[in-house]
Write a structure and sequence with these properties.
This protein is mainly α. It has one domain. It has a three-stranded mixed β-sheet. A hairpin with a 4-residue loop joins strand 2 and strand 3. It is elongated, with a radius of gyration of 20 Å. The N and C termini lie close together (4 Å).
Length: 229
């Protein structure tokens, strides 16, 4: 039976772990710096203006709880912004709010990668759980086919993460362009917005790398690379 604790797992994933720690540090630093740069509109008002200019008058904007809990809900066509982002008149707030508005514009304009991402959401939600269950069953029953099915299930998360990258980068590009075009941020504010959104982008890259390296590790582990009985 394979040992549950394998130091090689952490060595294998170390590039993703280091990248994630660095990205999270950048997000916190850029977030704090951008909150100090004033803008004429709050995050909610900036998102509303951006949506209205694009003709998306039916997309709602709501305040939600939690820090960095901002997201666009395509099922209910509503932006949910955390308290600081919703109310603050800062480069950080308008940047994050405009990014979420960018997702609403993708939805309205039938942006193909967004549709693919939404289709892949179940695989991302249930794939890791199915992987763990099938892995345990496969090891307990000594049935490699169950383990292989588990690897396929986990592959769904990897596919989702890879599709998610262009979706997130496109939403950020839409936000940067709109905020400058509508005069919501000046040159200093534009730099701050770029720093915040670019830092957030690196967290998605790190998450994708982590999922990919995890899958590769287990593929090597269970296809003869370093299997222990």
């Amino acid at each position: 039976m394979m040992m549950w604790f394998d130091p090689m797992y952490f060595i294998f994933l170390s590039p993703a772990i280091v990248l994630m720690l660095w990205a999270q540090f950048r997000v916190k630093s850029a977030y704090a710096a951008g909150m100090k740069i004033a803008t004429p509109l709050s995050g909610a008002s900036a998102a509303r203006h951006m949506l209205d200019q694009a003709g998306c008058h039916d997309v709602g904007i709501e305040e939600t709880h939690g820090m960095l809990s901002d997201h666009y809900d395509p099922r209910h066509r509503v932006l949910r912004l955390s308290r600081d982002v919703f109310h603050s008149r800062s480069a950080t707030a308008v940047g994050i709010a405009a990014h979420e508005a960018g997702h609403a514009l993708q939805h309205a304009q039938h942006y193909a990668p967004l549709a693919l991402r939404n289709f892949a959401v179940p695989a991302a939600q249930f794939g890791p759980t199915a992987f763990i269950v099938l892995l345990i069953l496969g090891m307990f029953l000594r049935n490699p086919n169950l383990i292989y099915l588990g690897l396929i299930a986990y592959g769904g998360l990897v596919v989702f993460q890879m599709i998610n990258l262009p979706v997130e980068f496109d939403a950020s590009n839409r936000a940067k362009a709109a905020l400058s075009e509508y005069g919501i941020v000046d040159q200093q504010g534009a730099v701050a917005v770029r720093n915040v959104l670019n830092a957030a982008g690196w967290t998605y890259v790190a998450a994708t790398l982590q999922a990919l390296l995890t899958l590769l590790y287990y593929v090597m582990r269970f296809t003869g690379g370093s299997r222990n009985d």
